[in-house]
Amino acid sequence: MHQTTYHRPSSVDEAASLFAKGSDAKYLAGGHTLIPVMKQRLASPSDVIDLGKIKELIGVEATGDGIVVKSATTHYDVASSETVRKAIPALAYLASLIGDPAVRHRGTIGGSLANNDPAADYPAAVLALGAIVKTNKRSISADDFFKGLFSTALEDGEIITAVSFPVQAKAGYAKFNHPASRFALTGVFVAKTPAGDVRVAATGASQSGVMRVGAIEAALKANWSAGAIDAVKISADGLLNDIHGTADYRANLVKVMAQRAVQAAG
Amino acid sequence: MSTVKLTVNGKAVSADVEDRTLLVHLLRDHLNLTGTHVGCDTSQCGACVVHIDGRAVKSCTVLAGQAAGSSVTTIEGIAKGDELHPMQAAFRDNHGLQCGYCTPGMIMSAIDIVHRHSGQLDEETVRQELEGNICRCTGYHNIVKAVLDAAGRMKVAQAAE
């Protein structure tokens, strides 16, 4: 790892001003992506600005029609939060599948979203649930937030402060995980809104990161059941094709995981 | 360079380290607590697991500065004098180790598992919960037996306190 300067601000404003002063600063939340990448010397930030101890960024709150998960809340705290379990059990379940217990004690929702790894779990929940990503500057809808592989709508220096999840009528997640890394070989999150609309998001499948799956959404809107997905055809075009699985294999996984997610959602 | 102050195994410590220093290197190289091991250095194997403020974490993926102000417990800090921690005793009695390289991390993870499940554990849960700790000798069988054994012992020890 190259030399760097570590900072621990106590507020979001202080963090943003430290970032602006650094020549090539990076934010650190749980550190479970940035530190490995720094060890590989794929990143060598001049300054590392730790958001993990900023009190205003930690915790879960129930709102009238949803929940707000603040950005430096760890996967473990989301998975074990009674508020999350009660309002959106599928979200707590998703958090409980990330990495391993020690990783879940450090990794955060904000870090996962800002990184937007194409095989990360949280992007699927944020996109399917129609969440709002809140930053120190604005609110960004899930549909506008994800911009492809490791790319988001976040501007340089912008900090995710919270994610606001609406409670949907039904929600479920199913993941076929890579047995070594526990990333999603493919994971699918399904949600049915109170108005009857359906949103389905797949992670780990597309070369462009998390994606909506329109064909499955249409099938589930007509008939919310695992069987309704049987006849859906998923194209392998643009899907990831690597040593872990071919594009055709992933296309099939999108269907199978969607069916399991519907069964989990009930 | 920064001065990092934290509590390790109940004692206040202070060390002048480069900002890029990992917690595991602070423990091993600066505090001579070499019980915590570096296995893969990629957050996969779990040989470096310690507790920060009571939670099991991989100390190869935490900067020393991130642990400043926290209370860290390592494998050296769990026995009471000559009396092994119930998890250590259970690993010995159940032959839960062979080469011993993964053992410190296994034991620190296992104590965290027992705490999080309030001692209510079955074999399947233990196997799932140990997914972040890799052992290349034992085939895990005796490790799982040891954790289940220790869960019972820790309950008894807690009841006695």
TrEMBL record, chain A:
Location of the FAD-binding PCMH-type domain: 1-170
Gene Ontology MF terms: FAD binding; oxidoreductase activity
Keywords, in A-Z order: FAD, Flavoprotein, Oxidoreductase
PROSITE patterns in the cross-refs: FAD_PCMH (PS51387)
Annotated protein name in UniProt: Carbon monoxide dehydrogenase
Organism name: Bradyrhizobium jicamae
From TrEMBL, chain B:
Family annotation (Gene3D superfamilies): 3.10.20.30, [2Fe-2S]-binding domain
Alphabetically ordered keywords of this record: 2Fe-2S, Iron, Iron-sulfur, Metal-binding, Oxidoreductase
Annotated ranges, domain 2Fe-2S ferredoxin-type: 2-78
InterPro entries: 2Fe-2S-bd, 2Fe-2S-bd_dom_sf, 2Fe-2S_ferredoxin-like_sf, 2Fe-2S_ferredoxin-type, Beta-grasp_dom_sf, Diverse_Oxidoreductases
Keyword Oxidoreductase: yes
Iron-sulfur listed as a keyword: yes
Single GO molecular function: 2 iron, 2 sulfur cluster binding
Xref: PANTHER family: OXIDOREDUCTASE WITH IRON-SULFUR SUBUNIT
Name by which UniProt lists this protein: Carbon monoxide dehydrogenase
